[in-house]
From TrEMBL:
<keyword id="KW-1133">Transmembrane helix</keyword>
<dbReference type="InterPro" id="IPR036013">
    <property type="entry name" value="Band_7/SPFH_dom_sf"/>
</dbReference>
<keyword id="KW-0472">Membrane</keyword>
<feature type="domain" description="Band 7">
    <location>
        <begin position="48"/>
        <end position="212"/>
    </location>
</feature>
<feature type="transmembrane region" description="Helical">
    <location>
        <begin position="12"/>
        <end position="30"/>
    </location>
</feature>
<keyword id="KW-0812">Transmembrane</keyword>
<dbReference type="Pfam" id="PF01145">
    <property type="entry name" value="Band_7"/>
</dbReference>
<dbReference type="InterPro" id="IPR001107">
    <property type="entry name" value="Band_7"/>
</dbReference>
<feature type="transmembrane region" description="Helical">
    <location>
        <begin position="36"/>
        <end position="53"/>
    </location>
</feature>
<protein>
    <submittedName>
        <fullName>SPFH domain-containing protein</fullName>
    </submittedName>
</protein>
Amino acid sequence: MIEKKAWAVNGYLALILMLALLIGGIALLIQENLVGIPLIIIATILGTGILVVQPNKSYTLVFFGSYIGSLREPGLWLSVPFAIRKGVSLRVRNFNSKTLKVNDIEGNPVEIATVVVFRVVDTAKAMFDVEKYEQFVEIQSETALRHVATRYAYDNFEGKGLSLRGNPEEVSSELMQELQQRLMLAGVEVSEARLTHLAYATEIAGAMLQRQQASAILSARQIIVEGAVGMVQMAIERLENDGVVKLDEERKASMINNLLVSIVSERAVQPVINTGTVY
């Protein structure tokens, strides 16, 4: 069902007309003129159609089981008398999901939660196409979060592809797109979807922390070794180009060994002074 605008006229003019009919009807009854009775009845019927619309709120009107339209312009209005009115808020709202336990693409249990910013843009769909659109938003948000979380690993230790921890913007963007597709049925527009909680489940948190630490140490060592090799290569080339010393292969290997040990070692290296030769 698609939202449409309901018939309505200015409520202030309607109030003036109602007062005129009431006053005229009462005056005629006082004069014992029965014409005053239908005037009062008409004024009473018109009174049932008076509706006050607050800012950022909409009312759907149902007349004898048929949807006849919605009113969302703020103000005082006269619409169809005897119509049933159901109010729908058009304000932007937040939904904070519960912390869910799901398995990532590698099968590791993770805890994840999200916040969804949404608003109703089609009141007819929100009221008539789903049972309760607030509960629909909650259930579909958690379902979409579970679905998106199973597509990625919690962390990518090899540095390839996307991960939940390393690419929160991309994951949130995909979550928002999937939510929008799911919630179109309820006439809801998703403004933003963000991860608010992400952690390994308690049963594997300790093991994964050790894995992260080992991976960090390995990455740091790799950078140190690459830097050390570059420094040693630069030092040897500088010595040879400046003619400071001529090194044969054995002396060059010894110097490389000493320089690498001094650069890569975690502790301060104690120098050994050689007063003789290396042979």
